[in-house]
Amino acid sequence: LGTASMRGASGADSARTEWDAVEARWSDLESMPRLLLERAKDADPAVESVVAGSGGRTLSVRSDGTAVLMVRVAGSDVPQPLTLPPEALPENSRTLGLALVGRFPASLELAAVILLMAMLGAVVLARRQGDLAEDERRGLAGLSRLVDGGESRP
Fold it and tell me: Quick check: 41 and 48 in contact, CB under 8 A?
């Protein structure tokens, strides 16, 4: 936002940024082969497999936001083009999962360690409070306390 307000975003810049975002989302779908095959089967139930196109890429993005991929259809050995609509793009949750696991694995591991330490700290605090409550109950029942000023008493 700061860059856009200082420089001022021109229509061509914002259109290019939007196009880059569309290409990135199609690229995310391309990196999820099972989901890509599922979306291809949703578009045409006769699809058996997805075939790599020219240059090793599976998808080629069109200017209207759709993508074309080469698929093998049941009963044919010749790959055929299949157009996927923009609705075939992965949802935000899948894209987020791909980013966390694929692009930022160290951040995910760090967050996991921090949450694990917080959970262990909560268990230790809860256990200590439970011990104090047990000691108070023993004292009220007329039994010897487990902890009395840091020392045990018989």
Answer: no
Query: C-alpha 25: how far from its chain's center?
Result: 13
Is the pLDDT score of 152 beyond 70? no
SS3 89: coil
Alpha helices, DSSP H, located in the chain:
2-7, 11-30, 33-43, 92-98, 105-140
Contact at 8 Å (CB) between 68 and 51? no
Question: How high is the pLDDT of residue 59?
Answer: 86
E strand or H helix that includes residue 124 = helix 105-140
Question: How far apart, in whole angstroms, are the C-alpha atoms of residue 10 and residue 89?
Answer: 27
Q: 58 in helix, strand or coil?
A: coil
Q: How far apart are CA 147 and CA 113, in angstroms?
A: 33
Residue 153: its pLDDT value, please? 46
Structure tokens at 37: 């095959």
Instruction: Classify each residue of 3-25 as buried b or exposed e, where b means 16 or more C-beta atoms within 10 Å of its C-beta.
Output: eeeeeeeeeeeeeeeeeeebeeb
What is the mean predicted confidence (pLDDT) over 58-82?
A: 87
Maximum Cα interatomic distance, the chain, rounded to a whole number of Å: 88
